[in-house]
Amino acid sequence: MVPLEVRRKMRFQYDGASAHCTNVVHEYLDMKNLVYETPVETQRDLVARIAVAAGRIREMPGIFRRVQHNMAQGVQNMQ
Known about the structure:
It contains four helices and no strands. It has helices at residues 4-9, 23-35, 43-59, 63-78.
């Protein structure tokens, strides 16, 4: 667990720059591209696409464990 005082000072820049991102973030951005792959016609269509992308993220083996590990690694690198 990352101490609260450290979390308050943390800044994450998930803007796609390789210096700021991990593979986990790039996988997320790929999901974002899937949502907007073609023009969205309706709000219902957008919601459905987001639900599908979120399902794919949830089904990625170990995704949340990897996010947690990468965040902890980032904190260690800041110290």
